[in-house]
Amino acid sequence: LSHQMEMNPSSRYSYDPVLRWDPEVEDYFNKAYGPDHFARISKALTRPSSYSCIRVNTVKATSDAVIEKLTKILNDDSEDGLKLVQQPDGSSSPISKCQIPGLEYVVLVNGSGPHRIEYGSELENPPKEVLVSRKCAEAVLRGAQVYVPGVLACTAHVEKGDAVAVCVAMEQPGDDGDWSVNMTRGTTLQGLPSDPFYCERSGLYIGMGTAMLSRAGMFRVSHGVAVDLNNRVFRLPSFHNVLEGEIFLQNLPSIVAAHALDPQRGERVLDMCAAPGGKTTAIAILMNDEGEIVAADRSHNKVLDVQRLSAEMGLTCITTCKLDALKSVCLPSTLSDSTTSVNGDSSVSLTSHSEVPSNEGIASDASGRSEAEKSCEENASTEQPNNGGDNVSQSEIRKNKGRLKNGRGRTQSQGGRAGKSKGFPPNSFDRVLLDAPCSALGLRPRLFAGLETVISLRNHGRYQRKMFDQAVQLVRVGGVLVYSTCTINPSENETVVRYALDKYKFLSLATQHPRIGGPGLVGRCEFPDGYVEEWLKPGEEEMVQKFDPSSELDTIGFFIAKFSVGPKD
Ligand SMILES: C[S@@+](CC[C@H](N)C(=O)[O-])C[C@H]1O[C@@H](n2cnc3c(N)ncnc32)[C@H](O)[C@@H]1O
After folding, report:
1. Nearest to residue 284, comparing CAs of 410, 196, 184, 403?
2. Residue limits of the SAM-dependent MTase RsmB/NOP-type domain (predicted)?
3. In this structure, which residue's CA is closest to atom 15 in ligand 1?
4. What whole-number distance in Å separates Cα of residue 294 and Cα of residue 348?
């Protein structure tokens, strides 16, 4: 295949990635979905959704006002990011209100692609190239620019202003079975078959652009745009710095998860794995900022991200704390007198910055968590769509901004510190959201999935079941518990629901509004090693929402289960 692509420039200089899976994982997903369906899911994962989804902060703005402002920006020649999505004939606007009942405050901005790009590729005269990391390419496919840190290699003699083709360096299998990108940053490409990654980057070209720096500059400076990618395979808007505080870029299923919780004004809600706060703020807006939402996360720095986002959106009903979801429940006897009350809850104490390890990585290692737990957490933190820049999350951008200007709200009032919680008494919340850290195998676009094994996938499920055991104790009788993930892996979705329903007889699946996702998987799976996994029972599949990346809705892969909590006795 590589040889053919080498000989045929039009297939070499194209975008047609094949997602690599661990063979046992591929077998498992083939069994779960059927080979054809899984092939479609796999293909869909390599592409971004065809639209961006914006949740309007209705506490500050209306969707009509936001549409008007975005349209103005779209027609402003200086706003390159949004101009990208303008229809070629300029006839119909790419901006519209979501038509799903109850989600009219969500604004959709259509992108386009895949486009055929003319790379000017003659065999004797190949285009100059810039090779970027996979993470950089995934961000670029979502609308980001090509930033300097993402560049790995470049053709010799590239000067500022040159036309360059941008392609992706993918992980390759090594002799030891591990995957890696074996390339020294700064490598010179010749455009010849003898180049590193020459065959491997066939079919992995994401656009044509203008070099903003010379080759030497790309590897000398530490930040800035390396290539202005003005001719892209996928054209999606970048909302970097656009209408801050009034809008939040969020995947549609995440917005639906907040609706599934059905929070009511004045209630007390716990968001157990809250950072960076996308669903927390969605819940707060549904509650019209009335009541109390406790937003917890085990990472101190990520808790600060939630604080910043809440402040930016002007939401005051959100209380944040650093808390390990595996230790969320405390018995009243464990509450010491010395704890400081935050929003009237004596189980939460403010922690001085010095008490919190400054290096989360070191803290994590010291906590003795398994590799699966750690990778689960790292993956999950990328759920937020990132159109803002290469390898720089929106929360990172916000953090930097926070350093420059002091926003109002809790960030300031708590001096940028996250209160450390000792947990909460049983039955102390009306509703709990467990948006669990997961393998993130639903996120799009994804160009590589080879690192997960069937064992790591099962371990994610084990970690989530432990969190569920805590969550279920914290919801009062008559309350609601919502469990969600951004993965297509049944071990983290249907299997967790089966576990929950079998173990806690007082739980029942509840109807979700809106319900726009598809059904869950019914049945069981027997693995070659004898391990058996149980999924849903007939009748339960229509009660959950499973967002299929290959379906017409064109969303990320996502799963939502809603439970009503009956008498616990
Ligand atoms: C899927 S993300 C949450 C996304 C968030 N709900 C949102 O919508 O913006 C999962 C989060 O779980 C956190 N996390 C992982 N393990 C945790 C634990 N043991 N306790 C609390 N939080 C944890 C991670 O730091 C990460 O921020």
Report:
1. 410
2. 180-566
3. 377
4. 10
- Strands 247-249, 225-232: pairing is unpaired
Q: What percent of the chain has pLDDT over 70?
A: 80
Tokens of 514: 């809106």
**What is the Cα–Cα distance from 307 to 345, expressed in whole angstroms?**
18
CA 291, distance to chain mean position in Å, is 27
**8 Å CB contact between 375 and 432:** no
What is the C-alpha separation between 226 and 411, in angstroms, rounded?
34
Q: Which residues contact 213 (CB under 8 A, 6 or more apart)?
A: 148, 160, 221, 224, 226
Is 53 among the annotated ligand-binding positions? no
CA distance 258 to 482: 9
Q: CA-to-CA distance for 220 and 185, rounded, in angstroms?
A: 11
> What is the pLDDT, as a whole number, of residue 123?
57
List ligand 1's pocket residues with C-beta within 6 A. Answer: 254, 273-279, 297-299, 302, 324-326, 377, 380-381, 383, 435, 437
**Distance between CA 250 and CA 463 in Å, rounded?**
25
Q: CB–CB of 148/225 below 8 Å?
A: yes
Above 50 in pLDDT, residue 227? yes
- % of residues, the chain, pLDDT over 90: 69
Judged by DSSP in three states, 451 sits in coil
Topology of domain 2-46+115-232, CATH: 2.30.130
- Helix, strand, coil percentages (3-state) for the chain, rounded to 5, are 30, 25, 45
pLDDT tens-place string over residues 90-103: 567 889 999 999 99
Q: Is the CB of residue 322 less than 8 Å from the CB of residue 347?
A: no
The ranges assigned to domains in the chain are: 2-46+115-232, 51-110, 251-565
Long-range contact list for 211-214, CB < 8 A, 24+ apart? 211/128, 211/130, 211/158, 211/159, 211/160, 211/161, 211/162, 211/163, 211/164, 212/160, 213/148, 213/160, 214/158, 214/159, 214/160
| Closest-CA residue to 463 (of 496, 494, 487, 430) | 496
- Cα separation, 280 vs 295, whole angstroms: 7
Say if CB 497 and CB 525 are below 8 A apart. Answer: no
Copy the structure tokens of residue 339: 């704890």
Among the listed residues 472, 485, 470, the one whose alpha carbon sits nearest the alpha carbon of residue 436 = 485
Ligand 1 centre and the CA of 376: distance in Å?
Answer: 9
Question: What pLDDT, on a 0 to 100 scale, did the predictor assign at position 517?
Answer: 98
Given the residues 154, 317, 486, 525, the one annotated as active site: 486
Q: Is the dihedral of CA 340, 345, 346, 348 positive or negative?
A: negative
Q: Please, which pLDDT band fits residue 19 given cuts at 50, 70 and 90?
A: very high
Ligand 1 atom index nearest CA of 433 = 6
Report the topology of domain 251-565: Rossmann fold (3.40.50)
3-state secondary structure of 524: strand
